[in-house]
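Re: that backbone. Tokens:
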């Protein structure tokens, strides 16, 4: 049972990683992450669903576009695999709990920011705000809905961290 859950979490991470690649490529260029459909960066041909299967499409096509045979950036494979492994790590740490969803969310934002910064040397403000919103939501959930706060857990530690890094 545990192996099946880990496999499903890994597949979820791969699929999300594929979407993260769209965000990584489009956000710095101020393009929509919803439309148009994904296309080959070299020839512009819209990709079919069979071309979008995370990791497997890259491997079966030997890292090349099915249509123009141009090389596909290793970034796509790396982001998808990293996302899959990242979600497994979060699952193994937290199980399926609210912490899993918040940690997965924040780690996803960090993965996207890392690759955008690596490629373009920018960190889009929108992604920073989305990360802050997620962090505040997690803090609020832990503060208002977690009994362990009343059991002596140091709820103020995140506030000290925020104050320390914000100057």
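Recovered sequence:
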């Amino acid at each position: 049972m545990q192996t099946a859950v880990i496999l499903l979490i890994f597949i979820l991470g791969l699929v999300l990683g594929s979407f993260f690649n769209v965000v990584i490529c489009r956000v710095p260029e101020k393009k929509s992450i919803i439309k148009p459909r994904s296309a080959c960066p070299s020839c512009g041909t819209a990709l079919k669903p069979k071309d979008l299967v995370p990791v497997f499409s890259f491997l079966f096509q030997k890292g090349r576009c099915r249509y123009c045979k141009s090389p596909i950036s290793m970034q796509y494979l790396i982001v998808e695999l990293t996302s899959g492994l990242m979600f497994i790590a979060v699952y193994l740490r937290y199980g399926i709990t609210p912490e899993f969803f918040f940690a997965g969310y924040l780690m996803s934002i960090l993965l996207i920011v890392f690759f955008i910064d690596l490629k373009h040397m920018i960190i889009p403000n929108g992604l920073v705000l989305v990360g802050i919103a997620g962090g505040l939501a997690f803090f609020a959930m832990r503060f208002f809905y977690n009994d362990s706060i009343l059991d002596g857990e140091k709820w103020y530690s995140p506030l000290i961290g925020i104050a320390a890094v914000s100057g």
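The radius of gyration is 19 Å. The CA atoms of residues 39 and 45 lie 5 Å apart.
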